[in-house]
Amino acid sequence: MIDADQALARLKQGNRDFVEQNQVRIEMDAQRRSELADTQSPFAIILGCSDSRAPAELVFQQGLGDLFVIRVAGNIVAPSQIGSIEFAAEQFGTRLVVVMGHSRCGAVGASIKQLQQPSEQRSPNLHSIVSRISPHIEPLLDGSAYDPEALYKAAVRANIDASVRQLQHGSEILEQLIENDGLKIVGAEYDLDSGIVEFFDD
Predict the structure, then answer these.
(1) What is the pTM of this model?
(2) Is residue 22 in some structural domain?
């Protein structure tokens, strides 16, 4: 299994190929399916948003068995997501976790709206998503001079950063893997217009 830095470099190159529309052979044929039937070794774990415009495998130009992808609206961190990441990191030795949000995220937008104009949520299930995002973006709504577009952008970034921190400090298993085994957890934002993924790994 490759280390976190090598995995990150591979994702960055894959995204460059995606943006530049380079012809890349993505392994997803019958032979690859056969190779993966009894085993897998994904080189990166992606916690991404469920938005149909941000599919990790396409954005990073990866094939079958390359990525362990968890998708949920707003790329939020809840126990099931943490457990999935713990499983992949321990079971497969994967050493890179990327929390990938994206521009104009609908879940973040719904959270901003709820904070600005509180209303009774029709769905308690939707509320469970909004309630996980709102505390991380509420400090941005302090009356400062954000215009709506700038507020949206700042909120998307704040939500990504919060998810990264929750994974880094909300699981004893992940904390130990970070400290002892080279696990790296980074944030990233996919731009819907350009196709570029900006990594926050520095």
Answers:
(1) 0.93
(2) yes
**36 falls within a domain:** yes
CATH of the domain at 79: 3.40.1050.10
Buried (b) or exposed (e) across 160-182, using 16+ Cβ within 10 A? bebbbebbbeebeebeebbeeee
Q: How many other CB atoms are found less than 10 A from the CB of residue 135?
A: 11
The b-or-e profile of 107-126 (16+ CB within 10 A means b, else e) is: bbebbbebbeeeeeeeeeee
Determine the structural domain holding residue 76 and report its residue range: 4-103+164-200
Domain count, the chain: 1
Residue 151 lies in a domain: no
Q: What is the mean pLDDT of residues 54-69?
A: 96
- At 158, the pLDDT band (50, 70, 90 cuts) reads very high
Could you tell me the end-to-end alpha-carbon distance of the chain, in angstroms, rounded to an integer? 23
Q: How confident is the model at residue 23 (pLDDT cuts 50, 70, 90)?
A: confident
CA angle 176-4-55, nearest 5°?
110
Tell which residue, 14, 155, 130, 153, has the closest CA to residue 72: 130
* pLDDT for 145: 56
| HSE-up of residue 82 (Cα within 13 Å, Cβ side) | 16
User: Is residue 154 situated within a structural domain?
Assistant: no
* Alpha helices (H) in 139-197, listed in sequence order: 148-169, 172-181
